[in-house]
Amino acid sequence: MTVESTMLIPVDAFSHLPMLVGRVLDPERSTFRISRKTFDDWDRRAQEAGYGDNWRRTHEEREASRSHALKGRLGQDLWIFAYGSLMWDPAIHVVEIRAAALTSFHRRFCLKVEIGRGSREKPALMAALDVGGECHGLALRIPAHAVDRETEILWMREMIGEGYIPVFRNVATPQGPVDALAFVMDRQSARFVDISPEEAAAIIATGSGLLGTNREYFDNLATHVEALGIKDKVFEDIRASLPFNANKVMTG
């Protein structure tokens, strides 16, 4: 069976970036293609770990956020700006992928979490879009007929708890600018930390939770970003302060 026949993202989606064929996971194979039933297991695990009933937004709160952000935009194609795992594991059906640059925001490890890759005893840092600079990533286009369904899945992934704000921003691509949805850091959130690369490295080196270590997350993100041909100084700045094997980046 050929790669083309098994791919659920159409081959045409890669016309601008053919080097990405085989590097972007099919949505239906992604563990992030979740449903409300997935939360039953997550709620159980969160309670067992002592996080209580309020560890996440309710379904109603999350859907209200989605409705507000997408008001007037259903019925038309929707662009998503991807800067992290959405680039290689989008978990949503898209029909076009472009190289993209978002100005006035940069990739930064400034979202502190105590669940997932972290815990209360060993918190973790996740990547987010913080104000200032520029971020290079990908622009993903969801076709109009699938926007409602696919963004419901996207919100379950990105808007589980506080930390991100969904905003629309002008994103530059080689094929022309697009108005894209981006999930940026909420600086008013208690999860936002304004710390140096050295301080970030100390947290990343020790963070650990139900989903694994913060170090694994950092190395995996760095590996994939670099494999896509994107250079970002944030990784080198943090690696310089990580333990001695930090420059041996994971390939998985």
The tally of structural domains comes to 1
- Per CATH, the class reads Alpha Beta
CATH fold field value? Hypothetical upf0131 protein ytfp
The number of helical segments is 7
Percentage of residues in DSSP E strands: 15-25%
Number of strands: 7
Largest sheet, order of strands side by side? 2-3-1-5-4
Q: How do the strands and helices of this protein lay out in sequence?
A:
Layout: H1 3-6, H2 36-48, H3 59-69, E1 78-82, E2 96-113, E3 124-142, H4 147-158, E4 164-171, E5 178-185, H5 197-206, E6 208-209, E7 212-213, H6 214-227, H7 233-239
Parallel strand pairs: 1-5
Antiparallel strand pairs: 1-3, 2-3, 4-5, 6-7
Helix pairs in contact: 5-7
Characterization of the model:
Helix content is 28%, strand content 25%. With 252 residues, it is α+β, with helices and mostly antiparallel strands. The protein has a single domain, classed as Hypothetical upf0131 protein ytfp (Roll). A 5-stranded mixed beta sheet has the order 2-3-1-5-4. A two-stranded antiparallel sheet has the order 6-7. β4 and β5 form a beta hairpin. α5 crosses α7. The radius of gyration is 18 Å and the shape is globular. The protein starts with a helix and ends in a 13-residue tail after the last helix.
Compact description:
By secondary structure, this protein is an alpha+beta fold. The chain has helices at about 5, 35-50, 60-70, 145-160, 195-205, 215-225, 235-240, and strands at about 80, 95-115, 125-140, 165-170, 180-185, 210, 210-215.
Primary descriptors:
two-stranded antiparallel sheet; disordered C terminus; 5-stranded mixed beta sheet; 7 strands; Hypothetical upf0131 protein ytfp; alpha+beta; disordered N terminus; single chain; 252 residues
